[in-house]
Write a structure and sequence with these properties.
Chain B: It catalyses: GTP + succinate + CoA = succinyl-CoA + GDP + phosphate; acetate + ATP + CoA = acetyl-CoA + ADP + phosphate; succinate + ATP + CoA = succinyl-CoA + ADP + phosphate. The complex is a heterodimer of chains A (381) and B (289). Chain A is an alpha+beta fold and 381 residues long. In chain A, 38% of the residues lie in helices and 25% in strands. In chain A, strands 7, 8, 9, 10, 11 and 12 form a six-stranded antiparallel β-sheet that branches. Chain B folds into two domains: 110 residues, 3-Layer(aba) Sandwich (Rossmann fold); 150 residues, Succinyl-CoA synthetase domains (Rossmann fold), CATH 3.40.50.261. In chain B, helix 3 packs parallel to helix 4, helix 6 runs parallel beside helix 7 and helix 7 runs parallel beside helix 8. The chains are: A alpha+beta (381), B alpha/beta (289).
């Protein structure tokens, strides 16, 4: 789960990390009022889960009321890489002399968290990591002990942060690690940490992603999730409890198990079609989940045909077949052609139960995918 | 022959009184697995499928001489259950549980480096030696005893590829699902090493997916150390960057690492043919045999 910048900054501020004065605004008038109260200059920043907001026009500076209004009008409602901007953060402009990067993430290869500091902040840190890896000081943390104070100092000194600011930057890193651990973050970073012309050290941006598997013990963060769905289909998937990702194509895909669903997507592409989504209904799926899954793909207007691929281990083919029949019998006319392939536990029973007036049935994965791809092509002719 | 499990393996099931644990303990017993005990705090003295249940893993191991455990404990308590298993001097622990918080697993991973126990998983279907024993949730009926080893990050994809093999009469020595999480115990390299040492394994299938660098490391290992031929499959060629595709570990980062293409290239460079479809993987294995 991703927090918005304003949400992450609330968490940071509460933990004692210095952040600029700011207010969230959902209308142009609110944004202008916020700017007047904070005082100019201000930055008006789109609150969407999209990287590279600045370059895409999602961040504008304003020196006065007129510019603040213009900035808010331009950003609110704009389309940023497919997502509509519904709120902006109006924030006090910072007169900075230097920009740093500070963050903590999981190094999965090592199985350990890694704390990182760089004096080349303010730009895409992944580019720095690729082109000039020595510019990022890294310190692996033993998760049994947490980050020792010396490790924060070491990372800051190794990165070459000015002596006069090293203590403040180390303090931000220490607090970030504590938050990373206490709040079950998967990534937490400030890019940039700004050194102001007055010599203050301040967190000008905030990224905080939470491990979805740990939300059960972070109830206050879980509450913020409502505000963070990217579109209606993803909200619906969340309510149904599906792993779902929307893609650009027109062949809807339903399956069980992440690896097999990914493989089904890949085969759609391999046979010349374009996958519309990733939808994993999970293990042990019963009739109701099957109905919900069909509802998901049918409500995506991009979808022209559907392939339903189940390999039963825990999931039983006869249960799935019943669910498919029940779901489709509700329609006077099937909204989009559905091809079903069942294998594994009770697959033969399932195949016999399936109502072939409503669905097409194929024995192999390859055949089912090719059928769905050609159905989608027909719709578009 | 086989690797890690056979009909001598004595298994304790952690979480045997829960819905999943109970069902799959029954399935394991039916398959012929030597399930000797269950362990569930507060349920000591009960019996499930005729198997005695103990309050702690220590008690179960002491009373029934178990050497392996299978963990079906719910995610919020699974980290603790894994510590309990690792502190009990078992040879093998198989963690089926999906959804264990990553930071809990980081602590378990640290402990793992201090003990001799091998961990498979978490978030995996388990391990099976066809005709002898299965520890986990794999559907036994699709497997057949034979001479091909299989290691995979994904459950249902394993079943798909296994059925492609079995349908052609190609059986398996052992199949291991290593799990789709960012932090796992046994990885590709560990499993490949075991198959390389196994005299009865004549070829190996390796099913990877996007995310992380385990497949690239496996490719380097194969090129350096393996005589047994390996065929590969990589899921997630069409996955967009930055989106988690079901598995917590299956994500292509923004900078383009962990992509299917980088894994396919690495495997091809190591002389490993990678199938475009599961059927093609079976073709490659048939060519090897």
């Amino acid at each position: 789960m991703k927090l918005h910048e304003y949400q992450a900054k609330e968490v940071f501020a509460e933990a004692g990390i210095p952040v600029p004065d700011s207010q969230l605004a959902e209308s142009v008038d609110e944004a202008v009022a916020a700017a007047e109260e904070i005082g100019y200059p201000v930055a008006v920043k789109a609150q969407v889960h999209v990287g590279g907001r600045g370059k895409a026009g999602g961040i504008k500076l304003a020196e006065n009321e007129e510019e603040a209004r213009e900035a808010a009008e331009a950003i609110l409602g704009m389309d940023l890489k497919g997502y509509t901007v519904e709120s902006v953060l109006v924030e006090a402009g910072v007169d900075f002399v230097n920009e740093l990067y500070v963050g903590v993430t999981m190094d999965r290869g090592e199985g350990k968290p890694v704390a990182m500091v760089s004096t080349q902040g303010g730009v895409n840190i992944e580019e720095v990591a690729e082109e000039n890896p020595e510019a990022i000081a890294r310190e692996h943390v033993d998760p049994a002990f947490g980050m020792h104070p010396y490790q924060a100092r070491k990372a800051v000194y190794d990165a070459g942060v000015d002596r006069e600011h090293s203590r403040d930057v180390a303090s931000i890193l220490t607090t970030l690690y504590d938050l990373y651990e206490e709040r079950d973050a998967s990534d937490i970073e400030v890019n940039p940490v700004m050194i102001t012309s007055d010599g203050d050290v301040i967190a000008a941006d905030a990224v905080m992603n939470i491990d979805d598997d740990a939300l059960f013990r972070q109830p206050d963060l879980e509450e913020m999730q409502e505000a963070a769905y990217e579109n209606d289909l993803e909200r619906k998937a969340g309510e149904y409890g599906f792993d779902y990702v929307r893609l650009e194509g027109n062949v809807g895909i339903i399956g069980n198990g992440a690896g097999l669903v990914m493989t089904t997507l890949d085969l759609v592409d391999y046979y010349g079609g374009q996958p519309a989504n990733f939808l994993d209904i999970g293990g042990g799926a019963k009739a109701e989940r099957v109905t919900n899954a069909l509802d998901m793909v049918f409500s995506d207007e991009n979808v022209d045909s559907v392939v339903f691929n189940i390999f039963g281990g825990i999931t039983r083919g006869d249960e799935v077949a019943k669910g498919i029949n029940e779901a489709l019998e509700q329609f006077d006319e099937i909204p989009k052609p559905v091809t079903v392939r069942l294998a594994g536990t009770n697959a033969e029973e399932g195949m016999e139960i399936l109502n072939t007036d409503l669905v097409k049935v194929e024995k192999t994965l390859e055949d089912a995918v090719q059928r769905a791809v050609s159905d989608a092509e027909e719709v578009n002719q | 022959m086989s690797i890690l499990v056979d009909d001598d393996t004595r298994v304790v099931v952690q979480g045997i009184t829960g819905g999943e644990g109970k069902f799959h303990a029954g399935q394991m017993i039916e398959y012929g697995t030597n399930v000797v005990a269950g362990a569930v705090p507060g349920k000591g003295g009960q019996e499930v499928h005729g198997v005695p249940v103990y309050d702690t893993v220590h008690q179960a191991v002491e009373a029934e001489d178990a050497d392996a455990s299978v963990v079906f404990v719910p995610p919020a308590f699974a980290g603790d259950a894994l510590f309990e298993a690792l502190d009990t001097d078992l040879d093998l622990v198989v963690a089926i549980t999906e959804g264990i918080p990553t930071q809990d697993m980081a602590k378990v991973y640290k402990r793992l480096s201090e003990v001799d126990t091998r961990l498979i998983g978490p978030n995996c279907p388990g391990i099976i030696t066809p005709g002898e024993a299965k520890l986990g949730i794999l559907p036994g009926n699709i497997f057949e005893s034979g001479n091909v080893g299989l290691v995979s990050r994904s459950g249902t994809l394993t079943y798909q590829v296994v059925s492609n093999l079995t349908d052609r009469g190609i059986g398996q020595t052992t199949a291991i699902g290593i799990g789709g999480d960012p932090i796992i115990g046994t990885d590709f390299v560990d499993a490949l090493e075991l198959f390389e040492e196994d005299e009865d394994t004549d070829a190996v299938v390796m099913c990877g997916e996007i995310g992380g660098e385990d497949e690239e490391e496996a490719a380097a290992y194969i090129a350096e150390h393996m005589d047994t031929p390996v065929a590969g499959f990589i899921a997630g060629r069409t996955a967009p960057p930055g989106k988690r595709m079901g598995h917590a570990g299956a994500i292509v980062s923004g900078s383009g690492t962990g992509t299917a293409q980088s894994k396919i290239d690495a495997l091809n460079d190591a002389g490993v043919p990678v199938g475009d479809t599961p059927e093609e993987v079976a073709d490659h294995i048939e060519d090897f045999l």
